[in-house]
Specification:
By secondary structure, the chain is α+β, with helices and mostly antiparallel strands. The strands form 3 sheets. Strands 3-2-1-5-8 form a 5-stranded mixed β-sheet, with no helix packed on it. Helix 3 runs antiparallel to helix 4 and helix 6 runs antiparallel to helix 7. It is elongated, with a radius of gyration of 25 Å. The structure holds copper (II) ion (CU). It is a multi-pass membrane protein. Pfam families: COX2 (PF00116), COX2_TM (PF02790). Its EC number is 7.1.1.9. It catalyses: 4 Fe(II)-[cytochrome c] + O2 + 8 H(+)(in) = 4 Fe(III)-[cytochrome c] + 2 H2O + 4 H(+)(out).
Length: about 300
């Protein structure tokens, strides 16, 4: 109870309000796309059409959940009060009522149909890429980092691990808003904007899961098996996800970072990355973070 009161007080406190305000301002001005924010109760902003559909379905479902919960609560309360032993000393012997039985059978069937149809449509859409992929990358989960491989003319492969605090300065990633603790990585997966991207997902040791909330993708990385998912990011920026399958002691420390850039930036980066990955990343960061600073200043 004391904990509850403490959290209630916190919710009402200025600290919480200022945290909300800060989060709103951050979401509003940041050109760094999406990552979790404190006290978040909703999804991250969608960066793909698929995530927009998932978000829609989540909200749609609430239109059934909330009224049903309220109805059941009211019925329970009514029965508890109206038919309590003291007010109702002689209980009814009724055992059947055809009308009520039809209602409580047909009602749930209709509700389930209303949920099942859009749900299956969404599921089908997730497994049906609307067009042929223009870029294929392979993500391999390891305990506890990711290997990325670009299936382009000359294959590009590199490892992506959590950014250690000691390496921030050398990597030029000291801005903790853009490169948050536990989410930032040393080498991001770079992809072009508005490009159909296929992701082949596998693992070397145990089952991991490749998940990117604002893209609406989450798929298991299973050793000896290749799973496939896809996304088409609509907005440039830096997106964060995490391994989403318990995979050992450092499960919480194998983030996924995807940097969505323009087509031209991607081509330049890809060409440079094949010979010098750290150099290519630095050049790209300088360009993108420079643009963001201009955008944040309101120019
Ligand atoms: Cu993992």
């Amino acid at each position: 109870m004391r904990n509850f009161l403490a959290s209630a007080r916190f919710l009402a406190s200025a600290k919480f309000l200022s945290a909300c305000a800060a989060a709103t301002i951050f979401a509003g001005t940041s050109a760094h796309a999406d990552q979790p924010v404190e006290w978040e109760t909703t999804f991250q902003a969608p960066a793909t059409d698929m995530m927009r559909q998932i978000e829609w379905f989540g909200n749609y479902t609430m239109w059934f959940i909330v009224p049903i919960t309220i109805l059941v609560l009211l019925l329970l309360a009514y029965c508890i009060v109206r038919f309590r032993a003291s007010a109702n000393p002689v209980p009814s012997n009724t055992s059947h009522n055809t009308l009520i039985e039809v209602i409580w059978t047909v009602g749930p069937v209709v509700v389930l149909l209303c949920l099942a149809i859009p749900s299956f449509q969404l599921l089908t859409a997730q497994y049906t890429p609307p067009e042929e992929a223009k870029l294929t990358v392979k993500a391999t989960g390891n305990q506890w980092n990711w290997d990325y491989e670009y299936q382009t003319d000359n294959t590009l492969a590199f490892n992506s691990a959590i950014l250690q605090d000691g390496d921030r300065a050398a990597a030029g990633k000291e801005d903790r808003k853009a490169y948050p603790r536990l989410l930032a990585v040393d080498n991001e997966l770079v992809v072009p904007v508005n490009t159909m991207t296929r992701v082949l997902v596998t693992a070397t040791d145990v089952i991991h899961s490749f998940a990117m909330p604002s893209f609406g993708i989450k798929i298991d990385a299973v050793p000896g098996r290749t799973n496939e998912t896809w996304f088409k990011a609509e907005k440039e920026g830096l997106y964060y996800g995490q391994c989403s399958q318990l995979c050992g002691k450092d499960h919480a420390f194998m983030p996924i970072a995807i940097r969505v850039v323009s087509d031209a930036q991607f081509k330049t980066w890809l060409a440079a990355a094949k010979t010098n990955l750290p150099g290519a990343n630095k050049t790209l960061m300088a360009e993108v973070d420079g643009q963001n600073k201009v955008a944040a200043a309101g120019n």
